[in-house]
Design brief:
The chain has 549 residues and is of the alpha/beta class. It has a domain at 3-147 and 393-471: FAD/NAD(P)-binding domain, CATH 3.50.50.60. It is 30% helix and 17% strand. It is built from 15 helices and 20 strands. The site of NADP nicotinamide-adenine-dinucleotide phosphate has 27 residues, from helix 5. NADP nicotinamide-adenine-dinucleotide phosphate binds at residues 56-58, 145, 151, 166, 184-190, 192, 209-210, 340, 361, 366, 389-392, 445, 504, 506, 511.
């Protein structure tokens, strides 16, 4: 398409997940001329793509839902405490309809290039459908977990059976009844999928390289009285979320008046190092294994952490009962709290089924894929269906794969080759008027991500309004501010289990071969971060350069 056929806009938004939908609404409300571009055939982003059996929210849905509309809060009824993927996808479709967003969203379309013309101060965005858009602002709402990660196994394409990735599960579903299924990986996706697949499959073999620490999710049907009360309390719930560093307030329903005669309620200890071995066991017996996540010292003290890990393995051994399975399922060699927390529904129970087995890959790496299955160092396995639950090239994968060129034709992926560099997770030097929602260097995935999405969308929207109102042509971070922010982000993660030398995770990028190791999200908390963002604005966009037209 020639330039004469290009469509002129104020802004292009890439993606129509939670971030893209809300960004679309905000810029729409401002009367801006926008186009949102979506690769999927429906809206919903992560909740559109990840439709594997068992996929559900891992936070209470009351708190993992949009807060921007009181009407939406009141009219939507959730059926479970941690809603499943179909319900969340429905909710996001309802949101798109409710706010008339579909008219601005082009589905089944992938952005291929976004190129900045400095002289014209315009981004030219092109798609695989031949569209050309020219816009002042380009906003990546592509999410942190979008680009599926496939392990580069030898002969991966020789397998004759069906192959699926949890993050690209077919829309029409997959019938695994009577099938011999293999699943690789046990992060949140694998842990959610395994119990559901185990119910259908004739045989399920779980191949695991880093068995997880996982804790019961405690999902349940939504109590209608609880939901009704939450609707009354929403304003307070949101306020509490804003005052919490994770964007979570753990709403428990209305506060009951205190009975002055009631015995004081027992509470678990704050630090595992403060209690004796007997007390530790007693607290697990009293409060359940989830208590191990409440001891604050396990997050930064290696000795405290190892005590918790040992107790976890003992609990697992006792629960599973089968020595081979318990041993293969036991997380070892990396600390608790290194990876993103995993919660589950009947995960370990599934391994008690006779049709479910586990292959420990720790001293038995995959050698190759064969026509009928997998070959590891110590054995060969046959199955009909291969499921990759192997995660994502997280946080940078999607953006780095696009041809995004800023000033002087510089490729964004080149400037990020040693790790992403952003100021406040919002913008990168050399890419004026180019924003990323929940980009690297912001709390994003180490918080209630929807809470962080809303904060970012509102910041970007207000920023654009400021630029327009003040006749500002461009906003771009200063190099010193960006360098200082990257340093600040690194410091915030230092000394935690998330950056321990024995830790590997998608937060660090070490799950993808060749990706530089570095902690990508910002760990100081959403409340702190919001204050920092507001502070930047109150100081006249400190750390950014704003150039008037
Ligand atoms: P993940 O946490 O990165 O887990 C991937 C799994 O695949 C790991 O067990 C990993 O082992 C394994 N793996 C990768 N490459 C392998 C290889 N070459 N050989 C053997 N094993 C390999 O990915 P995920 O489970 O998709 O979860 C990613 C994130 O998505 C979660 O942390 C969460 O933030 C989000 N998520 C959220 C929900 C929810 O909200 N309900 C559900 C699903 C996902 P290693 O650990 O050894 O690399």
């Amino acid at each position: 398409m020639s330039d004469t056929q290009a469509i002129e806009l104020d802004a292009v938004i890439v993606g129509s997940g939670m971030a893209g939908l809300y960004m679309t609404k905000r810029l729409n409300d401002r009367g801006m001329k926008i186009q949102t571009i979506e690769a999927g055939s429906g809206v919903g982003g992560a909740w559109y793509w990840n439709r594997y059996p068992g996929c559900r929210a891992d936070l209470p849905i009351i708190e993992y839902s949009f807060s921007f509309s009181k009407e939406l809060e009141q009219e939507w009824d959730w059926s479970e405490v941690m809603a499943g993927q179909p319900e969340i996808e429905k909710y996001l479709n309802h949101t798109a309809d409710r706010f008339n967003l579909r008219k601005d969203i082009k589905l089944n379309t992938k952005v291929t290039d976004a190129i900045y013309d400095e002289a014209a101060n315009i981004w030219t965005v092109t798609t695989d459908q031949g569209d050309v858009y020219k816009a002042k602002y380009c906003i990546m709402a592509t999410g942190c977990l979008n680009e599926p990660n496939y392990p580069g196994f030898k002969n991966a394409d020789t397998f004759k059976g069906d192959i699926y990735h949890t993050a690209q599960w077919p829309r029409e579903g997959v019938d695994l009844t009577g099938k011999r299924v293999a699943i690789i990986g046990c992060g949140s996706s694998g842990v959610q999928a395994i119990p559901q697949i185990a119910k259908q499959a004739k045989e399920l073999i779980a191949f695991q390289r880093s068995p997880v620490y996982t804790f019961p999710a405690k999902n349940a049907p939504m109590n209608p009285d609880f939901l009704a009360q939450a609707k009354v309390d929403y304003a307070d719930i949101r306020e509490q979320q804003r005052n919490n560093e994770m964007g979570i307030c753990n709403y428990r329903g209305p506060k009951k008046p205190k009975d002055p005669n009631a015995a004081p309620k027992a509470k678990p200890s704050k630090k595992i190092m403060d209690i004796t071995p007997e007390q530790r066991k007693q607290e697990i017996a009293d409060f359940g294994v989830n208590v191990l996540t409440l001891y604050v010292d396990t997050y930064y003290n290696a000795e405290a952490n190892e005590i918790a890990c040992t107790l976890y393995r003992e609990y697992l051994q006792e629960f599973i009962g089968n020595d081979q399975k318990a041993d293969a399922l036991s997380p070892k060699n990396y600390p608790l709290h290194c990876k993103r927390p995993v919660i589950d529904t009947e995960y370990y129970s599934a391994f008690k089924q006779d049709n479910v087995s586990i292959v420990d890959l720790r001293d038995n790496a995959v050698e190759e894929v064969t026509a009928t299955g997998l070959k590891t160092q110590n054995g060969e396995y046959e199955f009909d269906v291969l499921v990759y639950a192997t995660g994502f090239d997280a946080m940078t994968g999607t953006i780095k794969r696009l041809n995004i060129r800023g000033r002087d034709n510089v490729l964004l992926s080149d400037t990020w080759k040693d790790g992403p560099r952003m100021y406040m997770g919002l913008q990168s030097v050399g890419f004026p008027n180019f924003f990323t929602v929940t980009g690297p260097g912001s709390p994003s995935v180490v918080s209630n991500v929807l809470h962080s999405i809303e904060q970012h969308v509102e910041w970007i929207d207000n920023c654009i309004a400021h630029l327009v109102d003040n006749n500002v042509a461009t906003i771009e971070p200063d190099l010193e501010a960006q360098d200082a922010w990257v340093e600040h982000v690194n410091k915030a993660a230092e000394g935690t289990m998330m950056t321990a030398p024995t830790c590997n995770s998608w937060y660090l990028g070490t799950n993808v071969e060749g990706k530089p190791r570095g902690f990508m999200p910002y760990l100081a908390g959403t409340k702190t971060y919001r204050e920092e963002c507001n502070d930047v604005v109150s100081k006249g966009y400190e750390g950014f350069t704003l150039k008037t037209a």
